[in-house]
Amino acid sequence: MRKIGIIGGTGIYSPEALQGFKEKIINTPYGKALCNIGTMSGNQVFFITRHGVGHTVPPHLVNYRANIWALKSQGVDEIFATTAVGSLNQKMTAGHFVVCDQLLDFTKSRVNTFYDNPDRGVGHVDVTHPYCDTLRSKVIRCLEKTGIPFHKTGCYVCTEGPRFETAAEIKMFALVGGDLVGMTNAQECFLAREAEICYTNCAIVTNMAAGISPTPLSHSEVEAAMKKSISNMEKLMTAFIADNDPVQVVCNCRHAMAEFGGFKL
Ligand code: HPA
Q1: What is the pLDDT of residues 48-95, one digit of tens each?
Q2: What is the pLDDT of residues 137-148, one digit of tens each?
Q3: Which atom belonging to ligand 1 lies closest to the Cα atom of 213?
Q4: Whose CA is closest to atom 2 on ligand 1?
Q5: Exposure winner among 52, 186, 196, 251, fewest CB in 10 A?
Q6: What's the CA-to-centroid distance between 161 and ligand 1, angstroms?
Q7: Is 18 within the bounds of a domain?
């Protein structure tokens, strides 16, 4: 039985498939995390809604460490996350799914490590390939069966938010290789690697980014676009959970901190 963490981003708050799941508040050294726990396709599934019930927590205030710690404490060793994104890439348009393979971190004020405590000591995790390639292959395999328009790679630019970007920022992000822009993925991805959990993200394009879009951006536009993709995302999540093909015997993510004695709760 796999233990799978699902982190639902904007628009993915309480998927139909999770009906009958039980709510559990998990205490962590960083605060509480609310998790919905249940079984699907013979696997234990732990669902966290990133922005809280009713989308009350903005991206820069999400308790990323509590969420990742909570999943680790339940024995989760693979996470599938969703994120709404703006697009800088004309080939990636609204409704497209992107299995991100690279990340640019432009956040400014967030804690993105568990290794900031002298008791834990020094840790420098390798994030050359920030997303787990083993899990990414699985997501791609699932997408190939669904007919959803998708891209196998994409570079996610993580901004501080909560404001949207300026047109000049978007121009710069495109110049340095960004394809997509969002406000949440960097911390989650880096913390999951430190916690030796495989982590993959599937981004859903909701809008063209600032200065590319002909109209000003709004959160309601993002939510409305996400609504159109919810059934596709639920299809993908269900396929991902049901795909019990053994991944690789041992993914390197599970030993990311070996040089430092492994990650300890
Ligand atoms: N910018 C930042 N975050 C986003 C966007 C955007 O254009 N769309 C959805 N999330």
Answers
A1: 998 887 778 899 999 999 999 999 999 999 999 999 999 999 999 999
A2: 999 999 999 889
A3: 7
A4: 182
A5: 52
A6: 9
A7: yes
